[in-house]
Structure prediction request, 195 residues.
Amino acid sequence: MVSAPLGRQPSRCPPFRLGHAGFVSGHRFSDAASFGIRRPFRGWVGEVNVVILQKRVPDLTDLALDRFVARARRAVGLKGLVNVLLTSSAEMKSLNRRFRGKDKPTDVLSFPAEPHAQKQFAGEIAISAEIAWQNARQLGHSPAEEVKILVLHGVLHLRGYDHECDNGRMARREKQLRAKLHLPLGLIERTGRKR
Prediction:
């Protein structure tokens, strides 16, 4: 559950370029059909989010996830497109090692776009389907709900929130939005309970 900060170092961050047809993992959106999407979905009018489901989650279709991404963007006030990759823990471990120097899988990673591109492209979110499924089972809600919790968390990071240094501002906002979007216990809130 980490975001690359806006003033990030080049070695930790993906090369975002407007019009770049690739996800941070190197997959190309032009090859999206091979990852389970038949076509890009409409988010806000005139905009297209790209959802790539390399790993499936029970009761979560690519259309349902795309619609939730659009709802989360509106609720957070995030302008620009968001690309979402639902993938394996092995892929998340690779991304976490590549961009954060941590050789372990994580549940969600957010990659904000370069500042000059943020009006049209907000960034990318990668989510481990396997960790989402495990968390859902432990917490007593559906894997689809868990993925939505992780999407909301990632969208908040793309909007500029950072729970590691904001004195609870992101946690409060996530809690408000979770209630508005009818989601169970939030990521930051449950992490705080473990301590």
Confidence is low (pLDDT under 50) at residues 1-22, 25-46. The domain at 24-194 is CATH 3.40.390.30 (Collagenase (Catalytic Domain)). Residues 143-158 form the longest helix (16 residues).
